[in-house]
Amino acid sequence: MQAPRVLRLASRSIESFPLRPNTCRASQTLRTISTSQRPGIQPLSEGCKPSRRAFGLPSLSSFLPSSGNGNNSPHRVLTATRNLPYNPALLFKVIASVESYSQFLPFLTASTVTARDPETGYPTQAFLTVGYGPLSETFTSRVDCNVDKLTVEAKSGDKYGKEGQDKQTKGSSSSSGLAGFFPGGNEGLFEYLTTKWELVPLSPAEAQGGPLTKVNLEVRFEFRSQMHATIMSSVEGQMAGVMIEAFEKRIREVEGKGL
User: Record's superkingdom (predicted)?
Assistant: First the structure.
């Protein structure tokens, strides 16, 4: 019987060592070994060759808003209309109560009136906090309550800053000393945001014997960053409709309490 051959740790003895199964290492030492066929030695298969993982930045398109209407303009205009069986005076009273907005309007988590008209008592400025998901920002709004036109409009953003400062220099007064002042710069989620409520009393024929008022809501805005636009894109199309529904519910509550 032939005696077993003793392997010596010579410079080429590593060729006699069988490779471990499922081993995919490709060290510099193994690259120098001959891949000629020998008993117990198998060349590296294609599956064991080292692969290079590609790293890259995500596409910018993944950060763009994907609203269903396909509107890529940074300027957004949302509208909603509802005919409500109430007197316009009652509706105007609720809309002009800006301090109560956070109690019934979605996306508004806080509303504080900081200035009022000394003659009418209607708000002229307010701090409004918008919150949705991870976003929560407080910004300044200039409020215009026009009882003759039955409109209530709240504005915030850089584009209204000069107008607000001009009004301050013309002597608008309030107990807080802030009436008409509208900083707007570097605030909040928006480059600008306007919310306008308009009431249109309908004729007796249209009302069919009872009070009936058309409520028009228009929301105009532009997000300050593309990230904010992406986060809000899933709800922006529903915003105006949800707001006017919440307003209708608030009217029923106010009427029921006799406020």
Answer: Eukaryota
What domains appear along the chain, each with residue ranges and CATH number? 76-257 (3.30.530.20)
Q: Is 215 helix (H, G, I), strand (E, B) or coil?
A: strand
pTM of the model: 0.60
CA dihedral 55, 61, 63, 69 (to 10 degrees): -160
pLDDT of residue 129: 86
**Measured distance CA(132)–CA(60) in Å, rounded:** 23
E strands along the chain, which residues?
A: 76-84, 108-116, 123-132, 135-146, 151-157, 190-201, 213-223
What is the predicted pLDDT for the residue at 193?
Answer: 83
Q: Distance between CA atoms of 207 and 18, rounded to whole angstroms?
A: 94
More confident: 76 or 257 = 76
Give the separation between CA 63 and CA 49, rounded to whole angstroms: 36
